[in-house]
Amino acid sequence: MSLDLDALKVFVRVAELRSFTQAAHQLGMPKARASAHVQKLEAELGTQLLQRSTRVVRPTPEGEQLLKRAHGLLAEAEEIAALFHASRALRGRVRVELPVLIAREFVIPRLPELLARHPQLQLDICASDRLVAAVREGFDLVLRVGPVNEPGLVGRRIGEAPMMNCASPSYLRQHGTPRTLDDLRDHFVVHYATDPVPVFEYFDGKTYKELPMRSVVTVDNFDVYEAACIAGLGIVQVPRPGLERHANKLVEILPEFIARPVPITLLHTHGRSVPRRVRAVMTWLMELLSPTVGELVRAR
Fold this sequence. Notes:
Blueprint: H1 5-17, H2 20-27, H3 31-45, E1 50-52, E2 57-59, H4 61-83, E3 92-98, H5 100-107, H6 111-117, E4 121-127, E5 141-145, E6 154-161, E7 163-167, H7 169-175, E8 191-192, E9 199-203, E10 208-212, E11 218-219, H8 222-230, E12 236-239, E13 251-253, E14 262-268, H9 276-298
Parallel strand pairs: 3-4, 3-5, 8-11
Antiparallel strand pairs: 1-2, 5-14, 6-14, 7-12, 7-13, 9-10
Helix pairs in contact: 1-2, 1-3, 1-4, 2-3
């Protein structure tokens, strides 16, 4: 018995997203065709792979067993095909999730170079500052700025971005410029929603500590985080990359009390068997972003 690889691809996406509608949208096919692919695969294997209801779709125990091996099977099939088509052009879709700042400032401006090199490649770029569930939402590659605590992701550290403390001139005119940690008692920070409570992180010479702070606004997007600071709503702690675009809008403060550098990591969701198209995009992103991070670290 031979497995229909197209049907297997559809099953994997449906099982991970737990939705025929979302899977069909990502795969660029009608929902009815996605359902037909899964039904065909179930018929070939003689077992039910998905439990379907009006509210949710979830793998059966047999479906879970197949899902654990499916990524490897699909990647191995692609690698075997590549052995006999070494010069074959890269084709297919690669789904990438990037922080908004990195997508806008560093990746999108250079993307025409990659697509000129691989014209049959298609990229879906999700620019978002929320923490996506990479495997469940069907991404091939994700770039994380900060700690990574997600199962199923494998990747490479690009580097670390140094941090800085900033406030706007209007904020400093109203509240004064803090010179010491004690001065922060009379100040506010812009609260980023991923942090449980508003804090000011600093290095005391031995370790990093957090000072509880007051806040009048909470945001969940980095662009809005910076905009809130520029509007005079509080102090922010931000990576140095790209901050030169805010010349005269932000002022660095308390340079001796900066937060820990944030790691920047590029990760994939394919375990030990990475499809050739995904590996090519990952290599390109590493080559594109590593020098930028390296220059920022050396300039500290």
